[in-house]
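Figure 3 (text version): structure tokens given as input.
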């Protein structure tokens, strides 16, 4: 990874980050997905499980030995102090695994999919440019409800825990407006951005 171009991809929940990351992977980018890393840490046998059990109690561990995600989601998005406790366990581990994957990445462009990049004090300095996927909150809610079957209140609670669209856009080098456009149109925008980077960082 030394010398590679690092793109930080971020956006609010349901904005379309994973969709854009998948398009970029299809175009040849190496993608480091911090949501996926967070999930693997909290799977049965994952590096965060003992700390989660010790801090939150055995009732937050499911029958298979992984974190009970639905229970944790309800707790975390109802109380910012609880969310910070979980983040204090997971974020250092996510950071270490992200560094490990990035160091192993072979390719001219690495894309970091980081939902909380704008909330982080350290992430901006770790990437060469930031792409923000942006859409109206109502669009986020509609997509989350359709994708995950959550209630709209549950979706709004997550949005409320995240930074505002304005603050997120303020750190963007590129804003991808993913509202009221088709997936084909999104793919075209991403393709154009990728072609420009691939030409510069071959
Ligand atoms: C809260 C948890 C248990 C909810 O799990 P669930 O399977 O329902 O959701 P999933 O992990 O797929 O996350 C969905 C989205 O929620 C949002 N989200 C997740 N964690 C947070 C957080 N700490 N603060 C704000 N938004 C968050 C992000 O937009 C993320 O893309 C889980 O997200 C978690 O363990 N979060 C703590 C780790 C973290 O901060 N991850 C996000 C950055 S890597
Ligand atoms: N332009 C679009 N048109 C139609 N559907 C879209 C569009 N962009 C994203 N979606 C859909 O919206 C949903 C949310 O998108 P995606 O999972 O990429 O968001 P995300 O930002 O990664 O969400 P999360 O923060 O939960 O990980 C998905 O079902 C996706 O297919």
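Below: residues designed for each position.
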């Amino acid at each position: 990874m030394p010398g590679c171009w690092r793109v930080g991809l971020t956006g609010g929940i349901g904005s379309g980050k994973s969709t854009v990351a998948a398009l970029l992977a299809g175009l040849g980018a190496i993608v480091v997905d911090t949501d996926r890393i967070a999930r693997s840490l909290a799977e049965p046998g994952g590096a965060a499980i003992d700390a989660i059990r010790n801090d939150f109690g055995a009732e937050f561990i499911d029958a298979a030995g992984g974190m009970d995600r639905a229970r944790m989601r309800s707790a975390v998005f109802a109380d910012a102090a609880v969310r910070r406790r979980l983040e204090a366990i997971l974020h250092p581990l996510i950071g270490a695994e992200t560094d490990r994957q990035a160091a192993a990445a072979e390719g001219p462009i690495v894309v970091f999919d980081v939902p909380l990049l704008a909330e982080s004090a350290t992430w901006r300095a770790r990437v060469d440019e930031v792409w923000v996927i942006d859409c109206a909150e109502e669009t986020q809610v509609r997509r989350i409800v359709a994708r995950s079957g959550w209630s709209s209140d549950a979706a709004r609670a997550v949005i409320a825990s995240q930074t505002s669209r304005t603050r997120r856009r303020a750190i963007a080098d590129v804003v991808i407006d993913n509202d009221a456009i088709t997936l084909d149109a999104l793919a075209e925008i991403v393709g154009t951005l990728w072609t420009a980077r691939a030409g510069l960082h071959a």
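DSSP finds nine helices and five strands in the chain.
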